[in-house]
Design brief:
Number of helices: 3
Strand order of the largest sheet: 1-4-5-3-2
Largest sheet: 5 strands, mixed
Helix content: 25-40%
Oligomer: single chain
Number of strands: 5
Order of helices and strands: EHHEEHEE
Distance between the termini: 21 Å
Shape: globular
């Protein structure tokens, strides 16, 4: 079952938290591709073969969240990916306090954009959006299969 939470609800029902580096120990990925590379390397270290659907899902979620932070969120301010208890947690923060939304209604012509947020919500097992500094932080959790 896929779930989403928006707001400052406690994380007590979420998988164990990953820590976001408070310093510049780990530099932010410079591109969406660099963020995907980090997630791919993490899943490979965990032993998930690259041909598994969960890898594709994780990379799609990563791409959407990082792209939106760069394009619509005023820039990427934090990025972390870790695995705890068989759950991949992706954390992306940006400079905008505006929560992601799904565009509704029929726009004239071909609509470009507005598909990413519903895609993230459908692929992730849990998505949370919380205030973070002057912006927001989005955490997406994805259960990993055991081989």
């Amino acid at each position: 079952m896929r779930r989403s939470r928006v707001g400052d609800e406690p994380e007590d029902r979420a998988p164990e938290a990953c820590t976001v580096p408070a310093s510049s120990e780990t530099p932010l990925p410079a591109t969406v591709g660099a963020a995907r590379d980090r997630v791919t390397a993490l899943l490979t270290r965990f032993g998930i073969p690259s041909d598994r659907r969960v890898v594709t899902d994780a990379l799609m979620i990563t791409s959407e969240l990082v792209t939106n932070a760069i394009r619509h969120g005023g820039g990427l301010t934090a990025f972390d990916a870790c695995i705890r208890g068989g759950v991949l947690r992706l954390l992306v923060a940006d400079n905008s306090p505006v929560h992601p939304f799904t565009q509704t209604g029929e726009a004239p012509g071909i609509r470009i954009g507005g598909y990413g947020w519903p895609l993230v919500q459908s692929l992730a097992d849990l998505v949370t959006v919380t205030p973070h500094g002057a912006g927001k932080q989005i955490a997406a959790h994805l259960a990993l299969p055991y081989s």
